[in-house]
């Protein structure tokens, strides 16, 4: 939160998907993000399977970046950006398609719990 307040950002073209973690639902954070023009989209409770990042990106990033030692937040940010830029486009397309297939399976099951 301090980082967001100290450095102005322009996020009006961003669609931001959040879960219901306390930092995400804090009124002050929501008001700040909305003042930046960010459209907030909250995922359904207990459904990390609907979030592309939770499905695979975070675990991949954690595996790759946990082997390194960082001296400050800027190094972490730069490493994360470099990591994201290095993602294989075909792999991302495959994972997005798997997410779409998962959505369709949930729709077909009329919202009931599914495993895949």
From TrEMBL:
Gene Ontology terms, MF aspect: nucleic acid binding
Gene3D superfamilies: Ribonuclease H-like superfamily/Ribonuclease H
Highest rank taxon of the organism: Eukaryota
PANTHER family assigned to the protein according to its UniProt record, in alphabetical order: MARINER MOS1 TRANSPOSASE-LIKE PROTEIN, PROTEIN GVQW3
Protein name, as recorded: Uncharacterized protein
Species per Swiss-Prot/TrEMBL record: Macrostomum lignano
């Amino acid at each position: 939160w301090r980082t967001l307040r100290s450095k102005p950002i322009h996020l009006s073209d961003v669609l931001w998907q959040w879960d219901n973690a306390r930092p995400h639902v804090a009124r002050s954070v929501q008001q700040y993000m909305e003042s930046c023009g960010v459209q907030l989209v909250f995922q359904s409770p207990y459904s990390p399977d609907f979030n592309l990042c939770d499905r695979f990106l975070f675990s991949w990033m954690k595996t790759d970046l946990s082997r390194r030692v960082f001296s400050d937040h800027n190094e972490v940010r730069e490493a994360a950006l470099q990591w994201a830029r290095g993602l294989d486009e075909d792999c991302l397309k495959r994972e997005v398609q798997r997410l779409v297939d998962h959505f369709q399976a949930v729709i077909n099951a009329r919202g009931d719990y599914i495993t895949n």
